[in-house]
Amino acid sequence: MIEDTMTLLSLLGRIMRYFLLRPETLFLLCISLALWSYFFHTDEVKTIVKSSRDAVKMVKGKVAEMMQNERFGGLDVLDAEFSKTWEFKTHNVAVYSIQGRRDHMEDRFEVLADTVNKTHPSIFGVFDGHGGEAAADFAKTRLPEALRQQLLIYEREREKERSGLSYPSILEQQILNVDREMLDKLSASYNEAGTTCLVALLSDKELTVANVGDSRGVLCDKNGNAVPLSHDHKPYQLKERKRIKKAGGFISFNGSWRVQGILAMSRSLGDYPLKNLNVVIPDPDIMSFDLDKLQPQFMILASDGLWDTFSNEEAVRYIRERLDEPHFGAKSIVLQSFYRGCPDNITVMVVKFKGKAGEH
């Protein structure tokens, strides 16, 4: 009797294992349990889902609030993320500069102004280095001072009506001189660093801007329009491409168009290996502006970190709404550019004008 019972139980066990442990049976069992949980425990399930959604919304709300808070004051949340920051402020000039997401800071800037005696025009410069900081450092140290010395001579000669120079000719001469000095110094130590060069001379009635590379200047006129003060020197531009090809060089695309597959701009200071090939040149483009005619409100001089995330028009509009801030909007727009994902160093200089001819 016991033997028959054990045999029957063994048979039942094999039958249960055969049917219950089949993949199809297990799948149907899981579906049944899920449906049972949903229909008979709806409140608990919905509570869990709602709590999760609320948590996500709360996090998104905090991020949105931080992103939309564009009037940054005091210590900013992201300040801790910047390995280094630089600030400069006078009565009408403000600069804010961050290292940002780069391992090194290669941006430089300089302001030389004689607002009391007005013996020479104010000098403003932004230099965005690459391949190290040596070239940008050299340009910042040498060029503004060389310009100041030459401008002092020019102003004295002009008073005697003996000067045959002009602001554009002085800018071109000194930029080319500094490039030659830089090449001599850096090539001696095989330093391949280079830099952009964006320099503005501001007198009572005239603004003169020289540019080499892809830093950029923009002016806000009396009507709030964006007026370009410079044009980027990029390898893909027809004029630059023809010049590079004529010199025996080439451009190729690797995320961006590059000269000889190396440099993402077609003109610079430094970069001695490319200068030796004559495919990259230091020649500045220079533009002059009549302040009485434009009656400008302010101008922006910035490294390309800003222009990667802002158009000329958007930057002018953004700064115009924030001129009452301590940094005239320079700090706000730098941080906003960082928020938008700029991977580069970012330097922004804002110069305010007053009255018809502008005070500096």
How many beta-strand runs? 15
Mean pLDDT score? 83
- What structural class results from the helix and strand content? alpha+beta
Helix content: 40-55%
Q: Largest beta sheet, briefly? A: 7 strands, antiparallel
Per CATH, the architecture of the largest domain is 4-Layer Sandwich
- The low-confidence parts are 41-80, 356-360
Q: Shape, please?
A: globular
Strand content: 15-25%
What does the radius of gyration come to? 32 Å
In the CATH scheme, the class of the largest domain would be Alpha Beta
Would you give the CATH topology of the largest domain? Phosphatase 2c, domain 1
What is the terminal separation in angstroms?
114 Å
Element-by-element helix/strand order: HHHEEEEHHEEEEEHEEEHEHEHHHE
Can you tell me the CATH superfamily of the largest domain?
Answer: PPM-type phosphatase domain
Total helical segments: 11
Tally of individual domains: 2
Task: Write a concise synopsis of the structure shown.
This protein has 360 residues and is of the alpha+beta class. It has helices spanning 2-20, 23-40, 42-68, 134-159, 167-188, 238-246, 272-276, 291-294, 304-307, 312-320, 330-339, and strands at residues 85-89, 93-98, 107-112, 122-130, 194-195, 197-202, 206-212, 216-220, 226-228, 251-253, 257-259, 269-270, 285-290, 298-302, 346-352.
